[in-house]
Amino acid sequence: MFKKLCSTVTPILLLAAVPVMAQEVPQVAPTYNCDFEPACEVSPGIYGKMGSPVTSKFNLSIGGFVKLDYAYNSVNLGSNIPAMASVQQMPKSSSPAAQQDQSIFTARQSRIWFKVAGPTFLGAKTNALIETDFYGGGGSSNETASMRLRLAHGSLDWSNTQLLFGQAYDIFGPAVPSTIDFGTNGATGAPSQPRVPQIRVTQKVELNANNALRLIVGVQNPTQDSNLQTNAAGDSWGATPNVAGQVMLVSKALGVAPGYYGLPMNSLTAGVFGLVGKQDVAGNKDTVDSWGYGFYTFVPLLKSKDGKNRAMTASFEGQAYLAANMRFNGATGNTLVGPTGDKTGAKGYGFYGQLMFHPIQQLGVTAGYSRRNAYNSSDYKGISNFEKSNSSLYANIAYDLNAAVRVAVEYQNLDTKYGNSVSAGTTNLVGTAGTGSANIGRLAFYYFF
User: Fold this and answer.
1) Can you name the residues that pair with 437 across neighbouring β-strands?
2) Cβ atoms 156, 121 nearer than 8 A
3) Closest alpha carbon to 229 in 287, 281, 185, 283
4) Is 120 helix (H, G, I), strand (E, B) or coil?
5) Is the CATH code 2.40.160 the one for domain 53-63+107-385?
């Protein structure tokens, strides 16, 4: 009788428990990285919630992207830079490399970052960021790619003042072209590289409700390439850091429009930037000055309707500069000129302009041109095949499939002109023509996370 009762009651109890068990496993609706319409789920990288805190000593957010690059180059640019051709001069048209093309893939630009929001200090929020990619110097191929430190800095952020220390973007040259090419025209008139150790202060000065000044001053590496970085007989000191700064007017008068990669929404910005320093040079009777100054602007041509949506927005970004002994960040093509014992910094200038247009939220079209020139060719007397100019013309289209996936295509023409080119029979240099150029096609797939 007891067994019969159990066999009858047990199924009834189990059926009664089903609703309870179902309640213990709530059904969670999917969420998207967005907070606006239309097409709210399409917004890689910037719109909506940028990061969700995870368990750590402080609030920690993780992000980055996976990127696969394919490049067809009409000349042979080597195996390590399929995604960053604009960081180098083009091989001369009569050289073996100019007679070879290449078709290559890489995923080494993929990157990951960690952001930390820590405790307050004297009314300031404390933050930190570490970002890495896979272009480390120890990796000679895609199969042996090494991690590389891109950014690593902490900051104290008050309402109008920021103190930042660590490795961050070079203060000189704020423009960063939106190219699929990883080089972002750094060697062709837009010296946004490298990321360097520094300490800097940023101060915002409110002028009125719509206008403010942004002031930046900092002390930063690197020491100049090809200049002495170690002690030598007769020298009293070696390398020293540089001092750099910016003074920018930021205005809300024209609204906001998309900037780099179509991710940040930027206001009208215009101002000047500069850098000064000096370096010891082995055997030189005097130190060599490093300096540069320039003008930068970002202009929303068609503003966002709500400050977030990219549909029917357009922007212009431009920059021009003059510099000396600044090859370390790509501002000049050469480092030093002049005879032994009396060398001075090689002078150069550059300019850059870019138009960006988003007809719809998901689609961005970008075109630009940049160029770096030697300032005075007569300074390069006796230097064979020096770079007279290095230019980049590019156009790309990017389409966001959803909140994570972006597909982009790009055409780029790179051109280098050389000075003091020597004819065959007088030198063992490979290639005697005075020019080199490349036509490049790229296809890139991104997954933002």
Assistant:
1) 415
2) yes
3) 281
4) coil
5) yes
